[in-house]
Amino acid sequence: xxxxxxxxxxxxxxxxxxxxxxxxxxxxxxxxxxxxxxxxxxxxxxxxxxxxxxxxxxxxxxxxxxxxxxxxxxxxxxxxxxxxxxxxxxxxxxxxxxxxxxxxxxxxxxxxxxxxxxxxxxxxxxxxxxxxxxxxxxxxxxxxxxxxxxxxxxxxxxxxxxxxxxxxxxxxxxxxxxxxxxxxxxxxxxxxxxxxxxxxxxxxxxxxxxxxxxxxxxxxxxxxxxxxxxxxxxxxxxxxxxxxxxxxxxxxxxxxxxxxxxxxxxxxxxxxxxxxxxxxxxxxxxxxxxxxxxxxxxxxxxxxxxxxxxxxxxxxxxxxxxxxxxxxxxxxxxxxxxxxxxxxxxxxxxxxxxxxxxxxxxxxxxxxxxxxxxxxxxxxxxxxx
Length: 385
Ligand code: SF4
Prior knowledge:
eight-stranded parallel beta barrel
């Protein structure tokens, strides 16, 4: 089992534990560069609300690229405005890491092997230790040290072995400075390499692992590749935080992460290895809203795709274990979704809302959103409080 690393818990920042028997946490990474204008006035309110919504959806850690000192100032100021632990993602420049540690930024992602001189590494680790800020090492198949790259190219070692060797080199630097509040990730765009590398490293260290397939592609490819790798690793008890890297929005990365964790729990019994504690740990944050929706066919009289797309963010942001069904037709809809707590379906030129398979409202399509909202609120307050 991995060691426990504490994160946050100072100022107004959420206190979390990563590793051990703690829940597996979902992380995502902001897609654009933030400027000071994104923190001011209406734009600032929108930024803070978007981050609050991500947290409600199940995101526990939010990472930002910090390519220069100005980005560090912006992130530092954002960290004063939100409670979700923020992670500064830094490459090479130790001065950026030192500046980030002046702010309530909860975690730094930097590789000690990339910082330069021993004095610089010591400066970053000493300040991080004094401020109780963990550091994550991020090893990536695309940026392996040249000697390891050569060994892979000449067939001496596999890509997975090279990732592990690079990770162990970085961990050795932390050990040298007696810095134990660390985490590590080894990312590859290959599902097989991601699984192999994390299995290998999990046998050799108790440092918590952040897992995911990197550069995983657009929505469908990215979700499938991540699910394929993460389900295997989680079922074996490997992985303490996850990120589903997508060429898509942060919201979809979080939703995908939630669905993968829910599937890991669901299938825990069926997966042979590690189906117990590790899989339960994956889902110990609670299921939240589960959406079932029909694929639509020629019988449909309701745009299930549009309705699901529109309601998805709000539903995932609800802190209730409710199953919601969105069905295309009255012939099969309510029957197919009998298990749903609340459902909506087309019925000719009308729309039906049903609860546990029984129709409770018949409305015009134009009133569908308002009626669905009312019934969802009623369900949440009366039946799931
Ligand atoms: S609920 Fe109706 S529209 Fe949707 S797939 Fe089933 S039969 Fe087709």
